[in-house]
Structure formats: C-alpha cells, structure tokens
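Journal club side-thread
Mid-discussion, someone asked how the predicted structure for our own chain would compare to the paper's figures. Pasting it here so we can look after the session.
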Amino acid sequence: MINYLSHWDINLTQSRGAIAIHLKDSYIRGICPSDNPSEVKKYYKEHIQWELDRKKFVDLKGYVKLSKILKKIDNNEIFHVFTLKSGIIYSFVFYFYNIKKSKSILSVNGLGYLFSDNSKAILLRNILRPFLKKTFNKAFDVIIFQNEDDKSQLETYLKFKNKSKLIESSGINTEEYILKKTFNKKLKIILASRLLKDKGIKEYSNLIKKFDKNKFEFYLAGEIDKGNPSSLNERELEEILKDQSLKFLGYLDIKNELHNYDILISMSKYEGFSRIMLEGTYIGLFCASLENSGTKFIKELENTVIIKAEELEDVHNEIIMKLANSMNISLNNRTKIINKYSSKAVAEKFLTVYKEI
C-alpha cells in the first residue's frame, strides 16, 4: 500500500493523480483535505479526508487529526508526501506524536516561502532549523527534488543524512491537453500563476507597458492564495489591475483554455520545476521566462526565451526578436516532453524509488 499525502487536494489531483493511474498495479490511497472528495476518488483507490484548514498558516488541530490518521494505518505501508509545507507538517506529527516507523518519501517541488528572501521567512527559517533537522531525518527515508539547486540548499539546511533523488518535474498527462494549432492575428500574452508577490505579477504589469497595444493583448490568470504569507491581497491586486490593458481572468483551466493564448510569460523568482512552462511548451505557445532553477529546462526546447534577472529590461526586446524569426508550433517539444516529463515517465521513476525502499 502506498499513501499519497498533501495538505492541498490539488497537489494530489493536478499531476500526481495521473501518476497514480499509471501505477495501477499498486494500491494507492490519497490522504488530503478536500471539498470535493469525488474528484480525489477519480484517481485513487481510496481517499481519507484530512480535516485541515489550508488557509491557516498553522492549523494545530489539523496536526492532531493527521496524527490520528497515521496511527490507524499499518506501519509497513509507504507514505509519499508532496510539497515542502506538507513535509514539515508530516515530519512534526511523525516526530512529536511518536508515529511508528514507516517508509516515508518527500517530494519537494519547490522551496517556497520558507526559503524566500522575505525577512520574516529568513527569521522563521532560522528558528525552525534545529527542529526540522531532527524531524526530517527521523521522518523521511528519501527526499525527491526537482532541481539540483533545491537539492543542495535543503540538504545543507537539514544536514540530511538519508537518501536524496533528483526527478525533474511532477509530470503532465499529455493526453488531457487541447493543443495549439494556429496563432491569433493580435497576439495574446498571458501570465498564469498563483498570485504571489515573488511570482513577478507587478513586474509583468510594468513590462506590458512597453508593448504595442495594437499588436498584443495582455492577460493575467490566477487566484489569491490566502494560506500563503507572500500572496497578494485584494487591494494589491486591484492596484495592479488599474491598467485597463491588462485583463484579469481569475482561475484558468490550463488543459482546456491555454491553447487560446500565444505567448506565455513567467516572471517568477523561484520555481522547483515550472509546471506552467512545461504545459505551455507542450501545448505550443511561445514561452519566455526569467532564469531560475526551475525554468532552466526550457533551454532544451524550441520557441523559448530565458532571461537573466539582471537583464529584465530586455524581456520585451527578446520576445520581439524571437517573434520576428519564428512563431511555428514545435512538434519536437511535444516528443521530448512525452519521453522525459510526462506523467508516465515520472511514474516509472517513482516506482523505482518505491522498490528501492
């Protein structure tokens, strides 16, 4: 039995659900809070509802409820925990509630708020370090990272003594996407992301002022994440949207709607492995991103631009220059992504880890 666990149901349905389906010969149970349990059950043979308020930075009652769940599960089962925040919660519960030893794996898809440059995050990171070194080394047999920089940083921070693996991407189920066939005459530029301060939303709103409004339309997609300290609030979002040329979409169904746009931009400072860039390149958009640990991979793909942070002013020029040369759909990108970054490819790598432990 393998238990997939996360503090947010979308982490178990958006990509890991497809992985669970590919691992159909294994009995995989999903453990997460969910307002829509039937959605979780589409992917998992069983769902355990974890009562946790995800919008709270710390929900101690949720920790207690997780301990009760863990104590009821056979200690010979494998636990695979997704995201660093979920890993922190799981490791604290495992350590302080004296959970019997199970084989546990953590997938880190990004270091998130705790490892940002925010002064409060730096203080919290230093306060938590002695505790996390103890809890992580006791709780996790393996930590899976999506890029080498995150791997090096977290291993050093935790003085992690157990195994580490590098598996790039969370995988995408390539069969579920509507693919792009043609480009719009008036090109549509979009940034699609959680509305966090370090995702470069303000920088994007400043960037679009440089573009010719007769040739381009500009869109922002995403939702405020009230459970994240770095999230924009309603007032900050309203300030950004004062620019009438920027159209706010709110939630965007990436699989079914992203093909309607032409240029995908990421201004994020940090990424574990950029899912949206992976989706955009597969669907067929032209993709431009600031360079960070989680976006470097697009260098190996066509119709992409990587911009160094110190060259931010050049984003507009880079896009225009590339557009002048090519706006063709890349079939090569799709083949590479299927072979290397699809849910099936990642599932096979996960299975190897399960067998090893």
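Post-session note: The longest helix spans residues 119-139.
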